[in-house]
Specification:
Elements: H1 8-21, H2 25-37, H3 42-83, H4 88-103, E1 107-114, E2 119-126, H5 131-134, E3 137-138, H6 143-151, E4 155-157, H7 170-179, E5 183-191, E6 198-207, H8 215-277, H9 282-293, E7 296-301, E8 306-310, H10 334-353, E9 357-359, E10 362-369, E11 372-380, H11 387-427, H12 433-442, E12 451-457, H13 463-474, E13 480-484, E14 487-492, H14 499-514, E15 519-526, H15 529-548, E16 555-557, H16 563-568, H17 574-592, H18 596-605, H19 610-617, H20 621-635, H21 642-657
Parallel strand pairs: 15-16
Antiparallel strand pairs: 1-2, 1-6, 2-3, 4-5, 5-6, 7-8, 7-11, 9-10, 10-11, 12-14, 12-15, 13-14
Length: 660
């Protein structure tokens, strides 16, 4: 069967139609075969084949243009993403996805360095299915990625597993094998150009079958890597800018707070200074500080005694020392003494640190005159005290120190004048009693009010410091002191404490102030010149007795010296002495009808002989033993010591003589 030859023009038109339709190269090649089947002449067939070659060249050029157009579109879109950069991870994922799409690879991924760990990690992957591969970490110089980062040059391998140009490691090879990768192309992410460029990561495209990457594919991936580097650098710059703005805003806020704190400090200082200049007291300053710092405030002296308090602490009191019980330390129990010791310890820490210290839920700031501890300012209810408020609290302690120092100077001056009055009273109380009382009232000191009299004495170099210590001890109490006949005499309001307790408290605190043991004798209360002079005489006798008894550094009153008190006292309180010595036995006998007092007298009368005592009492010796055991239970284990036995025998004799 024969075919009629067709004109070459028909085949040329067919080639143009296929080109216009975007047909693949294979279809273009069928045109020449069709012409051959249709019996084209050799000359026409040659012309059709030449036209086919030209069409194939046009087809290739169009394909390259379309590919280039797609690449440019991708790069343009990437640039648009960078221009609207909001989320760095989103931009990097878009770049990796486009790299995979344009190069037609099975997967693409991007690695970044970890500056803290000193290695490289997978930041973004696309097309990856292996968790092991996605969590790979590479050291510099390891694997293809390590080589790219080390040399700052692109590398491609048609078969990763057999390529020996880079260092293989077990972990990297395991990850690549688990992902199934064979052909890999890696390019560096560079900031800057030339030899000074900095590698900040790497971009990869990989296939799971062998493949040779063309130069234009390497160039395309390099372009995408450049965009990724710009994105990372831009994001870092934006992050740095945000941090800088945040720091600037924070600095501006700090400056504002500092300015406000300075203004507040100036206003607070002016307020406190005005209080002092207007003659305000310590309680006024404490009240102002409490209002400024929104907390409870207390002021204590150098021995920890409260001077004033504002708020729920310090017993809820507010005012001078007299409002805390009058006499220094009056009514202070063991818990109060421990509290005072804690405050003194905290104040010393504050003095050593030259700032306020936080201890036991409160702020304590030492009040100083040079290195002398005048006392401490205490703030409650503000555990979160910040810098400006802490400095305000510390400035308040300085103002309070100045006020206390001023008050102490005035008190010392007043005490010297009043001390002269006390000296005149003790020297000649009967010369002009009414004149002494009137003189005291002019000085603001009422001799007709009851007062506890304390006589204090110490030895050595501390003797010269005792008078000043007495002034400090009496500060704020309304008392007065004077030196007389080698001792320091103190007159102070009773404040609920008897002379013995007042003497013991004074002995302890005066000893701390002078740094040496101080012996103190108490007497009174006494009112009027004559009674005060008599109390002084009794106090001096008691002071002498304490020294003879070896009780130096202690405090006591005549009434507490047992039978010696009866001998030394002015009133010879025999009944009081008997009750003190034998009271528990007398009460026991009265309640139970026993004969403990008679048994004890018989025991002493018989020289401590149980046998003779049982004959005198007409009872069994076991009865005498049982009664003496009861005596010991009531009087204590020391009842039969020589000193205690002497007092008991004297009390028994006085009790017998009284006819009871």
């Amino acid at each position: 069967m024969s075919h009629t030859p067709q004109s070459p023009a028909r085949h040329l038109r067919r080639l143009l139609e296929l080109l216009a339709a975007g047909a693949p190269a294979e279809e273009l090649g069928t045109v020449a075969a069709e012409a051959r089947r249709n019996g084209a002449t050799a000359e026409d067939l040659a012309e059709v084949e030449q036209a086919t070659e030209a069409a194939l060249r046009v087809h290739s050029t169009l394909r390259q243009h379309r590919r280039r157009e797609a690449e440019l579109t991708a790069l343009f879109d990437t640039a648009g993403d960078l221009a609207a950069l909001r989320d760095l991870d989103a931009v990097l994922r878009s770049i990796v996805r486009r790299a995979r799409m344009l190069l037609g690879t099975d997967t693409a991924y991007l690695t970044l360095p970890d500056e803290e760990a000193g290695d490289t990690f997978m930041r973004v992957t696309d097309g990856s299915v292996s968790e092991l591969f996605q969590n790979l970490r590479l050291q510099l110089g390891e694997g293809l990625g390590g080589l790219v980062a080390q040399t700052a040059r692109p590398y491609a391998t048609p078969d990763y597993r057999t390529d020996d140009r880079f260092l293989h490691t077990g972990s990297i090879d395991a990850g690549v094998l688990d992902e199934g990768l064979v052909a890999i192309l890696g390019v560096p992410l560079l900031l800057g150009s030339g030899s000074g460029g900095q590698v900040i990561g790497a971009l990869f495209a990989a296939d799971r079958t062998p493949r040779t990457f063309a130069p234009d594919e390497v160039a395309l991936l390099c372009s995408l890597a450049d965009h990724a580097a710009i994105a990372i650098d831009t994001a870092k710059a934006m992050a740095d800018a945000r941090i800088a703005l945040a720091e600037l805003a924070e600095a501006n806020a700090v400056i504002g707070e500092h300015s406000a704190a300075i203004q507040r400090a100036e206003e607070s200082h002016d307020r406190l200074t005005d209080l002092v200049l207007r003659g305000g007291d310590v309680s006024d300053v404490a009240d102002a500080v409490a209002g400024l710092l929104k907390g409870d405030v207390a002021v204590h002296d150098g021995s920890g005694r409260p001077l004033t308090a504002v708020g729920a602490h310090g017993g809820g009191a507010s005012g001078s020392g007299e409002e805390f019980g009058g006499a220094p330390g009056g009514g202070e129990d063991g818990a109060g003494a421990a509290e005072a010791a804690d405050l003194v310890a905290a104040a010393k820490r504050s003095r050593a640190a030259a700032r306020a210290v936080f201890r036991d839920g409160r702020w304590v700031c030492a009040m100083l005159a040079g290195q002398e501890l005048l006392g401490c300012l205490v703030l409650y209810g503000r555990p979160d005290l910040d810098g400006p408020d802490q400095r305000l609290f510390e400035r308040s302690s300085v103002v309070t120190s100045l006020l206390l120092l001023l008050r102490r100077s005035v008190a010392e001056t007043e005490n010297r004048v009043r001390g002269d009055l006390i000296t005149d009273l003790l020297t000649a109380p009967d010369r002009d009693p009414a004149g002494l009382v009137a003189r005291g009232r002019r000085l603001g000191f009422d001799l007709d009010r009851p007062h506890i009299l304390l006589a204090a004495r110490t030895g050595g170099e501390a003797r010269d410091r005792l008078a000043d210590a007495a002034v400090q001890y009496l500060f704020g109490s309304g008392g007065v002191s004077a030196e007389h006949e080698g001792a320091v005499v103190l007159l102070l309001p009773p404040g609920g404490a008897g002379p013995g307790k007042a003497a013991r408290l004074a002995a302890g605190q005066l000893g701390q102030l002078v740094g040496s043991p101080v012996t103190v004798a108490g007497a009174g209360p006494a009112a009027g010149p004559r009674a005060i002079a008599d109390a002084h005489t009794e106090g001096v006798r008691c002071l002498r007795a304490l020294r003879v008894l070896g009780r130096a550094g202690q405090g006591a009153s005549v009434a507490e010296l047992g039978f010696l008190g009866v001998l030394l006292g002015d009133h010879h309180d025999v009944d009081g002495f008997v009750t003190t010595a034998l009271g528990p036995l007398l009460e026991y006998d009265a309640q139970r009808g026993t004969q403990l007092v008679r048994t004890l007298r018989a025991y002493f009368d018989c020289g401590g002989s149980l046998t003779r005592a049982k004959e005198d009492l007409h009872v069994h010796v076991n009865t005498v033993v049982q009664r003496l055991d009861r005596v010991q239970a009531l009087l204590g284990p020391d009842w039969n010591t020589p000193e205690q036995a002497l007092e008991l025998q004297l009390a028994l004799r006085l009790h017998l003589l009284s006819g009871a």
